[in-house]
Write a structure and sequence with these properties.
alpha/beta; globular; two-stranded parallel ribbon; 9 strands; 55% helix
């Protein structure tokens, strides 16, 4: 089984400038779910390996594996992980405190809201705010509460940076039809908050994921505040959609899916509500998880050329050495989207939307 899995990854590493580092990274991914020990390779370049792991947002996941289940690990690598882990813990504590402050003010104004991904998902999925890396906070409110939510964020010291300039009513309405969030940055601490009123474009999948996330809510406790999150099954549906929208170029997104599946978080998922497009997202992601982590998933189906092509493009995205906003990465993500949509009309809508507005 191990050899079969490795063969599915190896062809993407031929002539790759960091082939050794990626081989070891994928080996660590399999070890995490197989609970075995491995040998640290002699040909790993510590700086490059750390850069790759940081790009894939796997620092908190891989450190325990390297420390406890990997023999003869380079001291330079362990020290590098420890330094990045300290930075990660400080960042997460800051984000969690900010989430608690936002929660208090939203509650005082009786504004219903949800925390998506971030520290709240980390608690819901792993039981620990620092178990996964997060760059910002994602907050979902109903569109009719946007004005009050914006006022609260500004009260906390945030300023809107996307869109970059203040819009009048007419242009703001156009913006909301085209996009699904505002981006705020704290004036002093530089923390980022994405304020969403929608979490999925209808051109991507016809599923009303935003409406789904408001159903059957759960609470997690962060900094003594009870934070509302979608229930685990619906949160998992969004994780599939979100990762697919980015063609799975970060391993951390797949790690969340694999961990959630192995630990039964998706057992109550209502598969009957999923559209053809979202089912394709699920099958491609589960094939990726099966290949990379070596575990059994729910949606795997290798007899579809469409799914195979989506998996192929995602694996190429995972090992792209350039930055995630490079032309090559953008092309891979667009191709993934075009394969996701079956009909000509769907492909044309996807292409039109992407060329005009891009996506996030």
């Amino acid at each position: 089984m191990k050899q079969k899995i490795e063969n599915r990854i190896e062809k993407y590493l031929k002539k790759h400038p960091a082939a050794s580092e990626y081989r070891f990274l994928f080996e660590c991914c399999r070890v995490a779910f197989a609970e075995i020990t491995i040998q640290y390779p002699d040909n790993i370049r510590p700086k490059i390996f750390l850069e790759i792991v940081q790009h894939h947002k796997l620092i908190p996941h891989l450190y325990p594996i390297l420390k406890n289940r990997c023999k003869n690990v380079s001291e330079e690598v362990l020290q590098g992980f420890q330094q990045l882990l300290r930075q990660h813990h400080l960042h997460i504590l800051k984000l969690s405190g900010e989430l608690a402050r936002i929660s208090k003010l939203f509650a005082a104004q009786s504004i219903p809201w949800l925390s998506i991904k971030g520290p709240a998902l980390s608690v819901q999925l792993y039981g620990d705010i620092a178990a996964r890396q997060s760059g910002d906070l994602d907050i979902l409110v109903n569109e009719n509460n946007l004005t009050r939510a914006i006022s609260i964020l500004m009260q906390l010291g945030y300023e809107m940076i996307v869109p970059a300039k203040k819009l009048d009513v007419k242009h703001d309405e156009k913006y909301r039809k085209r996009f699904k969030d505002y981006l705020f940055q704290h004036k002093e601490r530089k923390d980022l908050v994405e304020l969403h009123w929608m979490l999925s474009y209808d051109w991507f999948t016809p599923d009303n994921i935003t409406s789904l996330l408001w159903q059957q809510l759960e609470k997690v406790v962060i900094a003594n505040e009870k934070i509302s999150v979608p229930n685990a099954a619906n949160h998992l549906i969004f994780l599939y959609e979100h990762g697919s929208r980015h063609s799975w170029y970060r391993l951390a997104w797949l790690w969340d899916i694999a961990y959630a599946t192995k630990n039964g978080f998706g057992k109550n998922m209502d598969k009957a509500i999923l559209s053809k497009e979202l089912n394709s997202c699920f099958m491609a992601a589960d094939d990726l998880c099966s290949d990379i982590f070596g575990i059994e998933m729910h949606f795997t189906r290798r007899d579809s050329k469409k799914i195979k092509k989506m998996v192929h493009l995602s694996k190429k995205s995972l090992v792209v050495p350039e930055k995630t906003k490079s032309l090559r990465m953008s092309w891979l993500r667009l191709k993934y989207m075009l394969y996701l949509h079956s009909g000509l009309i769907g492909k044309m809508r996807c292409l039109k939307r992407y060329c005009k507005f891009g996506y996030n």
